[in-house]
Design a protein that fits this description.
alpha+beta
């Protein structure tokens, strides 16, 4: 079972701090152990040499029959048993123990009768030296770790700040701001050697510039094609009106109307792509606006959509309007009518009746009872000229609705109603709260 870690543990700064701390602690521990062992060995060796030197002097005095000096004697009290046994066996040795609460260095050698001649030296100064050294190692290690963490945090923060800036620009680009650039200082100054972050920033800037060029080229191509088609289509429309009545004439006029609608949609798409559309804000009641949209769709024999000279909709004779809470909003009437008109027309064209347009305050939904939206629409939103599952049409209605909703500052989402609830496609338009200044009960 994996333990869930807090969110901050996944950041690069936290990982770098943990790594630096671990490395500093390991290095400080290694150096501390080496210094402690080296100094301890040196101190013990010096104390042992002094004790053995005193033992030699005491042995000479004992053999000469002279009186032993202070801290020297035969089988003195406190002599470690192991050292006594070693001396009785005819060997010399040293040992550090506590004698009466004082660290003592003992040196012992053989004496007559299986006794031990021993010398005791005060080892407290050497012990204090080692303890002081250990404290100094701990304090210096702590200071070194703290200083290294500060320096490391400063260095890592500079890198992570640049990475955050790069990620922010990437998010802006994905949101449609193709003018966003990282502009990392290391990519603009040839005298400074580039690093990995600068390489990522440069690659992102290059990708954004290339993507912008391609999209601008596509937008120009779409706009040029639509403008070029306008003139011959106008002439073709005029010529179609002069044809004698009959089924062939109706077919020609229908196809000419479809071409004109496609041309107008392409022009609108190109205008939306520029991102320079301006709102003409006025106060509108959503209930009345929805009724006007449906009424125009029902009355238009050629399925003209409100807010546009023509569209590819279908008559909306089976559209039900449900007002849960009416609302008055500050919005661009033409654009909002276009959004609702396209949603209703799409529901009739690709779904099944009944189609319900529901108003609940700032939330407007359009639902049909067909097979629902294709998976790619639900997951990624509408895509131009893409149709799946036997659907027909040029595929620009939902794209225009989504683009106009973005211009209005509204949010348009596409979902499918579960089959247990009747199934069908559900488009939800949520207007910005700042645009809604009054809500009323059912109309």
């Amino acid at each position: 079972m994996r333990v869930a870690l807090p969110g901050w543990a996944g950041t690069l700064a936290a990982k770098a701090a943990l790594f630096i701390t671990g490395m500093c602690c390991a290095l400080a521990a290694l150096l501390g152990v080496l210094v402690h062992v080296s100094v301890t060995h040196q101190t013990v060796d010096q104390a042992r040499d002094r004790a053995l030197s005193r033992l030699v002097e005491a042995t000479a005095a004992y053999e000469a029959g002279d009186a032993l000096r202070q801290h020297a004697g035969i089988d003195p009290e406190g002599l470690p048993k192991a050292l006594r046994t070693l001396a009785a066996a005819g060997e010399r040795g040293t040992m550090v123990t506590d004698h009466d609460g004082v660290p003592t260095m003992w040196a012992a050698g053989p004496a007559d009768g299986g006794h031990a001649l021993a010398v005791a030296l005060d080892y407290s100064q050497s012990a204090r030296t080692i303890e002081g050294l250990d404290r100094a190692i701990l304090w210096s290690s702590g200071l070194a770790i703290g200083a290294t963490l500060l320096v490391g945090a400063f260095a890592v923060t500079r890198v992570t700040r640049r990475l955050h800036a790069t990620a922010q620009v990437a998010r802006r680009i994905s949101a449609g701001d193709l003018d966003a650039r990282v502009g990392d200082a290391r990519t603009q100054d040839p005298s400074r050697p580039p690093d990995e972050v600068a390489a990522v920033a440069a690659a992102l800037d290059t990708m954004a510039a290339s993507l912008q060029r391609k999209l601008l080229s596509e937008q120009r191509f779409t706009a040029d094609v639509a403008h070029e088609l306008r003139t011959p289509l106008t002439g073709l429309h005029a010529a179609a009106e002069l044809l004698p009545p009959g089924r062939p004439t109706e077919l020609v006029r229908d196809r000419v109307a479809a071409l004109r609608t496609l041309t107008e949609d392409l022009l609108e798409i190109s205008r939306l792509d520029t991102g320079k559309e301006r709102l003409e804000v006025d106060t509108e009641a959503l209930g009345a606006l929805a009724e006007r949209v449906v009424r125009v769709l029902r009355a238009s024999g050629n399925s003209a959509q409100p807010g546009n000279s023509g569209s590819s909709g279908t008559p909306a004779s089976d559209t039900e309007i449900v007002v849960v809470r009416d609302a008055r909003v500050d919005t661009d009437r033409r654009r909002l009518e276009r959004v609702l008109g396209n949603l209703v027309a799409n529901a009739h064209r690709h779904g099944r009746t009944p189609v319900t347009l529901t108003i609940d305050g700032p939330v407007v939904t359009v639902r049909d009872h067909g097979d629902g939206y294709p998976d790619y629409v639900v997951e990624h939103g509408p895509q131009r000229f893409r149709t799946e599952g036997g659907a027909t049409g040029h595929g620009l209605g939902l794209t225009i609705a989504l683009g106009q909703a973005e211009v209005l500052g509204a949010r348009l989402t596409f979902t499918n109603v579960p089959r247990s609830a009747g199934g069908g496609a559900l488009a939800t338009l949520t207007l910005a709260e700042s645009q809604v200044f009054a809500t009323n009960g059912p109309a």
